[in-house]
Amino acid sequence: MRNFDAIVLGAGAAGLMCALRAGQRGRRVLVLDHARQAGSKILISGGGRCNFTNTGTVPGRFFSNNPHFAKSALSRYTPAEFLALVEKHRIAWHEKTLGQLFCDGSARQIVDMLLAECMAGGAEIRTGHRITDVSRADGFRVSSDHGEFSAPALVLATGGLSIPKMGATGLSLDLARRFGLPLTETRPALVPLTFSGEMLELMRPLSGVSLPAVARLGKQAFPEAVLFTHRGLSGPAILQISSAWTEGVPLRLDLLPDRDAGMELLAAKRARPRAEPRTALAELLPQRLAQSLAASFLPDRILAEQTDKDLRRLGAMLRDWNLTPSGTEGYAKAEVMLGGIDTTALSSQSMAARTVPGLHVIGEAVDVTGWLGGYNFQWAWASGWAAGGSV
Ligand code: FDA
């Protein structure tokens, strides 16, 4: 049995950040992961370039049962601090859009940076270790297929349930449950939405069509691209709204933001009465979508023969299309898990469990889920930093 000051379960974004800080504070840290390599989700993130933070990070861009919980950690480890680390390692980066910062080169640079910082603090990282048991008696004892380890502090950092193919498991959730911590309901988020019936019939042939739009649900509104897929809708605006969506609830799409679609269709009718509706619509929307909407919503006649009322009605629909998804593409396609370990059980300063001395939970396993665009990594860094300063 080898003893450490802290054992971190999960060598992902949050776990590595926690280990590097604790190690650099002089703690003897062990990080255990069942995957062959550390940071596997970082490696595939941002299309291989890792959208490692967002300069617009504010607590309002995170979903949680307690929207105040993330404030403390986010304010004590900011995007500017992570960026300073990136620059210290001479990693070239760029802002893509909406405050999203990416590596110019490869996500591998972020993983290498974190590993180098862990090494500088003397943290030991062991991958390819299957955790077989975790028990608590005078500290924590972790059993693995490569031996047993003990420490007075244990950090749960095995992430969420998304992409099980990549090795995502519910280990942190299971252990939290075992140690008596409450959980909030979990579900896939930042995930494509599926449709059925007539709506799917309309959407399926449009697979690949993308356009700028605004997706709305309640008070949430995301002006970004929408993409039609063979199962329904995806694209950044849809991924964003999926985190707010619950079964049976319609979302609203504005396919022509800032335009008066009804007026434009009426103007087209006056200017070119013999034109077909799909031609007029194709001046506003991608051609395949225009064709499909014209076929579905306007009778098969020239513009002059359409009533003004029908044109206005279609115009209004294009600005506020009510759509009820049948479901999501699930954890197989979700970028993150919504919900997790209830923040009421944790200190927002240190991520320590209030009722289990030495136990900490960080990253996606906690009920804090960011918007698309680098927010989830920023939460992983910030919560990892907070716990790394406490263990
Ligand atoms: P993370 O998943 O990073 O790490 C958990 C670690 O625990 C893994 O190394 C895993 O192998 C290990 N583990 C799991 N179960 C275990 C077990 N039973 N035993 C031992 N080890 C175990 N976010 C963002 O901000 N910008 C982006 O560009 C992207 N892009 C992106 C793309 C894709 C395809 C996905 C799926 C996700 C993203 N994300 C993202 C989200 C981001 O990857 C995610 O929120 C963070 O990685 C969460 O960090 P954690 O450290 O909590 O978990």
Approximate shape: elongated
Strand order of the largest sheet: 19-18-15-16-17-14-20
Beta-strand content: 15-25%
The secondary structure category is alpha+beta
- The helix tally amounts to 13
Our measurement of the CA-to-CA distance between the termini, rounded to an integer number of angstroms, reads 20 Å
Q: What does this entry look like structurally?
A:
By secondary structure, the protein is α+β, with helices and mostly antiparallel strands. It folds into 2 domains: 2-187 and 337-388, FAD/NAD(P)-binding domain (3-Layer(bba) Sandwich), CATH 3.50.50.60; 192-329, Elongation Factor Tu (Ef-tu), domain 3, CATH 2.40.30. Helix content is 31%, strand content 23%. It contains 13 helices and 23 strands. It has helices at residues 13-24, 40-44, 71-76, 79-88, 108-120, 171-178, 197-203, 236-242, 261-271, 277-282, 287-297, 308-319, 375-388; strands at residues 2-3, 6-9, 29-32, 51-54, 62-63, 93-95, 100-103, 124-126, 131-136, 140-144, 147-151, 153-156, 187-189, 193-194, 210-217, 220-228, 232-234, 251-254, 321-323, 327-328, 336-338, 359-361, 369-370. The strands form 6 sheets. The chain has a 7-stranded antiparallel β-sheet with strand order 19-18-15-16-17-14-20. Strands 8-3-2-12-22 form a 5-stranded parallel β-sheet, with helices on both faces. Helix 1 (13-24) runs parallel beside helix 5 and helix 1 (13-24) packs parallel to helix 13 (375-388). It is elongated. The mean pLDDT is 97.
